[in-house]
Amino acid sequence: MRAAFALGLGLSFAALAAALVSLVWTPHDVTALAIAERLRPPSAAHWLGTDHFGRDIASMLMAGARTSIAVALVAVGIGLGLGVPLGLLAAARRGTLADEVVMRGNDLIFAFPSLVIAILITAVFGPSAVNAIIAIGIFNVPVFARVTRGAALSLWTLDFIRAAEVAGKGRIRISAEHILPNVASLLVVQGTIQFSLGILAEAGLSYVGLGAQPPLPSWGRMLAEAQTMVTLAPHVAIFPGLAIVLTVLGLNLMGDGLRDRLDPRLRRAA
Prior knowledge:
By secondary structure, this protein is mainly alpha-helical. Helices cover about 75% and strands about 0% of the residues.
């Protein structure tokens, strides 16, 4: 299990490092077209080859990592920022109108996958990375709300919470001072999982043209552009696909490792 966590950490760090380095340096200009160099295989000049426009694939992957991570990170932030308070409120007001409104609102959002939400948003505002963030972020809200509510409800029955109530603390204050710190580890693990799903969602939206738009590089759009050239130049599709798979795998392995370390029941079982 430690080896899996280390592997996940390494893969996740590699993706983050590529994104950060791309802010200041890439092997080649990702916006430069060189038709004479199109569909070149991997070489010393182009480590992972070139695409159908002659762009360096390694540079595109580095810049695409920046796009994917930024979209997923902000989307998870939206989910945490809105979902956690709603989940705490629903748990604190269990059985009341507030709880019912939050949970039925969650059910309504869950009825529409992020792709459908993205289509609705795009129909109004047009395709862009910002709209992809909004779509994925909206879908993350009920996920964090449900996780927070479920974990908080089990805490409300414990003696230390009852003692806080007897001491005169209000339910909102108890949620902030006692419930939230005790569910934070669970939220960290869930955040890691949603981060990996956010990268997948961004790639999927870009693949169908609803995510990041040219000239902003995107792993999903690289796959979409390469699908007609798989037999002619398979490396054009293989490397973006590997980037998505390895990044998501790394984040999932890291999330499993964090869960094992942060969950006291799993630590005792080990």
